[in-house]
Amino acid sequence: MEGSFQLTLQIVIAVLAGITAQVTAEFFKVPSIVFLLLFGILLGPDVLNLLYPHQLGVGLEVLVALSVAIILFEGGLSLELRYLGKVSGSLQNLVTIGILVTLIGGGMAAHWLAEFPWSIAFLYAALVVVTGPTVISPLLKQVSVDRQVATLLESEGVLIDPVGAILAVVVLDTILNSNASPVEIFSSVLLRLGIGAIIGGLSGALLGFILKNTSFLSEDLKNLVVLAGVWGLFGLAQLSRGESGLMATVVAGIVVRASSIPEERLLRRFKEQLTVLCVSVLFVLLAADLSIDSIFALGWGSVFTVLILMLVVRPISVVLCTWNSDLHWRQKLFLAWIAPRGIVSASVASLFAILLTEKGINGGESIKALVFLTIMMTVFIQGLSARWVAQALKISSIDATGAVIVGGNDIGRLIGRLFQQEGESVVLIDTDPEACQQAEAEGLSVFQSSGLDPDVLEQAGIDSMGNFMALTSNGEVNLVLAQRAVEEFKPPRVFAVFPSNTPNNSTTNKTKVNAAFIDQQLIKTWNQYLREEQMKLGKTQFKEPGLSLQQAHFQSLIRSGELLPLLIKRQGSLQVVKATQDWQQDDEIIYLLHDPRPKLLKRLSGGIKSSKELKELVVGPLPEVEEVPIASPVDEPRENFCQQSVNS
Q: What is the arithmetic mean of pLDDT over 299-309?
């Protein structure tokens, strides 16, 4: 009983530490592996002496195997298939030529700088050819980059893991059986990959069929069926040929994703949660099992080995693999900088250290230490600097401009023209033929289709747009459109017009959907103002002195329904105004002001032009109106303010 409780306590400590590390990383907005490594080392025998992974014995290997199977399946399930065609050439090169470059370059560096024997040096290089979705995916969640780069990094991490792990096993077999010929080595790699791909493809297709045709199963039970199926196909592949299970799980995930199962979103969420748990526990356990003295014993040569891998080998690999691609130099430079190693390197290195020690071959602990040194250096240096590098290279998705607007009503077309006037790309989507014709007449790009169609959104260029806005007259439809856009395409900024009292309003922060500038119940009113020309387009900028007075006065006009803020320009970035927008100094706001005066009176006072000139106003360049006049006394009547604005 005493022994079983000690093992239970070890797992409990690992889970608590892992989830605490995840929460801490989420709070500080850094890759979670940073704190997982720190917590694991702190809890290990060398520091606090609370966690002893070696007590788990062979159970640690079982945990590693089953967890890696889940992690790689979730990686395959998360691959954005629609984008793979755009980067397929570069991706193929990275998982073939890139692996070869890393194997040769890493082996040479480990031999000459770290003074490893050639066999151990190439075994180390085989272990670090992988990048891994367990590090790349959390990093890209914290550092939003353009879709093409993100897809390439995520896909490389998922596909290179099984290939690299199999390569490492083959290199280990070669060390243990030195009589193997090059042909045998190459055929062994292909055999493992082939068996894994066949078993994974067939099993994935079967899982997809079951999920689509078993309506009597609850959603929760279907998730567990998939979990059992993943472990089952992993075991079958491993039984057929050692280490082919890694490839099988990745292929199965890709096939299930391609099957377009109805509950795909729920399944992916379930697998993501399992993956977070597995990664958290494994990294803490493996880091705790690491001897700090063994890392210091490596010397400076090992540090230089990792630096060569980061600063020389990776850039050469990226240059060769993306030579004929349409990626620009900034994207290539970011790819060359980001290649952190993850759980597969750590877990396989830990297993290899045990195997080499059992076989009486020196170098097992040194390989494990150097692999973990590689993980720590790449994660801390590349992971923590990724956001700064993306911003410096201007490939962060937050810097993306332009807008996709679903809803070709008067306000939608006006906002589209305002974006165009700033030199940004705009595409409108609407099912109404008349609205589409009006938008085309105003010089806007239009798709007459449903905003729920992902193919239409892709053709509209949502991947490269900075803003997505659902602006139809139906608030519930707008929320569905916005949430689908977040799930499918992850635009940097997503807005929807819906009633302020909607039950879903409280969940918009979780789904990254921002409530737009106007309540859905008022959108018809403002569209009518636009059609009847009972409005004036204005622009104002908040400045000192009197900033607080300007903000309060501006906000009172919004609450009274007389003023509608549309767009805000902050630090050179043009964005849609949020319903809960905070106003800051130097913000420039473009707005609509309700002007109820009769058309004849406005025409006589110069506030409105003739019908011909008005048409040009609507279709041609929009006029820049003076800033909103701010009343000097706080209690000045609002009617006086409106009159000043109209006459300005």
A: 96
Mean pLDDT of the chain: 84
In whole angstroms, what is the distance from residue 117 CA to residue 106 CA? 13
Q: How far lies 635's CA from each of 73, 559, 630, 632, in Å?
A: 64, 16, 12, 9
pTM score, two decimals? 0.76
- Cα–Cα distance measured from residue 167 to residue 103, given in angstroms and rounded to the nearest whole number: 10
Burial letters 72-102, b for 16+ CB under 10 A, else e: bbbbbbbbbeebeebbeebbebbbeebbebb
- For residues 229 and 211, give the distance between their C-alpha atoms in angstroms, rounded to a whole number: 11
Give pLDDT tens digits for 139-181.
887 787 887 888 889 889 888 888 888 888 888 888 887 676 7
Inter-helix orientation angle 133-142/343-358, to 10°: 160
CA gap 291, 281 in Å, rounded: 18
Residues 6+ apart with CB under 8 A from 191: 241, 244
The Cα–Cα gap between 16 and 229 comes to 28
Which residue in 228, 273, 272, 248 sits closest to 78, CA to CA? Answer: 272
Q: 197 with 159: CB under 8 angstroms?
A: no
- Strand pairing of 514-515 and 493-496? parallel
**Residue holding tokens 């909607």?**
502
Helix or strand holding residue 103 (H, E): helix 97-112
Contact 357, 364 (CB under 8 A): yes
% pLDDT > 90, the chain: 40
CA 337/CA 385 separation, integer angstroms? 9
Q: Give the pair of three-digit tokens for residue 37.
A: 């490594």
Type of residue numbered 269: R
Widest distance between CA atoms in the chain: 99
Could you please report the per-residue DSSP string of 471-532?
-SS-HHHHHHHHHHHHHHT--SEEEE---TT-GGGGGTTTTTPEEBSS-HHHHHHHHHHHHT
CA 453 to the chain's CA centroid: 21
Whole-number Å distance between alpha carbons of 405 and 538: 21
What is the rounded CA–CA span in Å between residue 90 and residue 105?
20
Instruction: Give the full edge-to-edge strand order of the sheet including 563-570.
Output: 535-541, 588-594, 563-570, 573-576
Q: Which residues pair with 467 in a beta bridge?
A: 403, 493
Name the helix (H) or strand (E) containing 540. strand 535-541
Tokens of 507: 């969940």
More confident residue, 630 or 50: 50
Q: What is the dihedral of CA 327, 331, 337, 339, to 10 degrees?
A: -60
Euclidean distance between the first and the last CA atom of the chain, given in angstroms as a whole number:
85
Enumerate residues 6+ apart whose C-beta is below 8 A from 241: 191, 192, 195, 196
Packing angle between helix 329-337 and helix 147-176, nearest 10 degrees?
40
Q: What is the 3-state secondary structure of 358-376?
A: HCCCCCHHHHHHHHHHHHH
Q: Could you say which DSSP state residue 625 is in?
A: P
DSSP sequence for 550-619: HHHHHHHHHHHTSEEEEEEEETTEEEEPBTTPPP-TT-EEEEEEE--S-HHHHHHTTSS--HHHHHHHHH
